[in-house]
Structure formats: structure tokens, C-alpha cells
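Give me C-alpha cells for this 326-residue protein.
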Amino acid sequence: MLNFLRRSIGAASVLTAAMLIGGPACAEHLRYGWEKLDGLNIFYREGGRVDAPAVVFLHGNPASSIQYEEVMQNLLDARDVRVIAMDYPSFGYSDAPAPGDYDYTFDSLSRTVSAFLKARGVSTYALVMQDYGVPVGFRLMEADRDAVTAVIVQNGVIHLDGFPSAQDETGELRRHWAQRNPENDARRFRSIAAGAFPTAETWDEGPALNPESILLMVASSQRPGVAQARADLWFDYGSNVARYPVWQALLRDLNAPVLVMWGHQDTFFTTPGAFAYLREAPKAEVHVFDGSHFATLEQPDIVSPLLSDFIGRHVAHGGSSSRPAP
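Here you go.
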């Protein structure tokens, strides 16, 4: 928009125009771009000084980094930190390689995230994780636990306590992960195909959810090959359940503060999953509030102060947690 303003009214008037359309021209705002990794364009949102303590946000399914937009901006306004979030391959604005060209597994996603952070010059960081972001983040911690300065979880599990649909070893999910069920995949294909442009007639998400986030979910998931990629990734989710004991042991040994935030309306990852973290991290701060699976989208006014307070006490109190981006 500022480029348009420069062309339209001249550079001398840009500051005045910026103040008219969005507040003080000196205000720090998120930046956006794509990082080239192994031939893939990986979209990211970023803000803050590159040498400030870093906070990395890992998104869930079927969302993207847009789920953290408001929370990231609020944290940037409140703390001297560097905030950064990327879209996984096939999610959000990142490239969507065909399943034959990219291995849609959680091991592969974690390698891509690790390569992205290295490319952006992020060496140590606090991790904010939700849903799919939790198994990605715990793989990062497995690879380099010393890189993580704090662990923040929002509606994401490493215990079966908060995952009722996976508790029955003979249930549909566990059977699918043991032997892939084509009908399970077909339901996922149908659900993705049924996604619609947000209109008054199609909207059933309530007043708190940003329609732009739904539009991006629909558009990105309906790109060629993405439905199969998402089905492949869901099939691989069983590998996460098998690693829960390893991640629980890792959390017990991890010398980092832990914050757990949970929307209790979530029926997929339920509230017992929040309190289960206390078994491995007895000093963890656990907050359960009126929210749903994507609380950062629907309840940023609740999540933002909790996150800002925690980051202020444990992360953003001086020192650098990253090296300048190349």
C-alpha cells in the first residue's frame, strides 16, 4: 500500500498519509516475505530487531501463520522481541509441492522449519506451538534442546489425556495409523472440496473468527495436490503418538519455563491435555479459558496478555537470542 501511495502522492507525503491511514508512522509492524529453501518458497511473517530475543510461532492444521497475526503484533508492541512464523509447505502462502516432490511427514516438516530458522538467522528461541505445531516443535527440541529458551503450548498435546479420539487402541484413528484406511482419506478429500468462500450464506464460524483466515485456509487447501498432501500428513500423525513418551521425558529434562494456554471449548484436544503437562513440568503455568481450538484467532485479547507477561518474565529481559539474518 505504501508503494502505491509513493506512486500516487509522492514520497514527501508518505509519512502524513501513513499517519492518516494507520496511526503513528514510526510504529513497528510485522513484515512479510518468502524464504527460498531447496527450491520451495516458504512464506513468513516477522517483526522486531533481528538481534532481539526470538519467539517462533508454529501453526496448526488446517491454518497457517495467519492464526498468529494479531498475537504476534500485540507481542511486538509490548516487548522488545523478534517474532517470526512461517507457513509449512502446502499451507498458507507457502509453495505446495506435489506429494511425490515433498515428503509430507512430520519429520520432513521439522527439517523444513529447522532449515528456515537457520536461513533467517534464528539460533535460539522461545517456541509457541499449537496443534500440528507441537509435534513439529518437539522434534526441534529433540534435535537441539539448548536452542529453546521457553516452551509455550496452546491446544496441542503430547499426552493421550487430551486426545480422546486416539485413546482407544482399537478405535478408528489408531487403526488408520496402523493400516491406512482409504475411506478416512476420502472423507478428508470431501471436507477440503466442500470449503467455500466466506459469505453470509456459508459463514457458520461465529463473530470472533476473522473471515480472512478462513478464506486463506480454503484457498490454500484447494490447490492441486494439497488434499493428498494433507491426507499423507494426517496418516503420519500416528508417528507423533508413538513419540509421546519420548517428548514427555524430554520435557522433564528440559531446563526451560513452560506456559500452557487452553481454550476449553476444544472438543478435539480437550482440557485434560493442558493439565497433563504438569506431570513433566510441575512449575508450568497453565491457563484454561473460554476459547476454542484456534484461540489465538478467536481470543487474542486473552492470549496476548498471557503470552506477553510470560515472555516479559522469562525471555525478553535482555540479551540476544539470534544472529543477524543473512
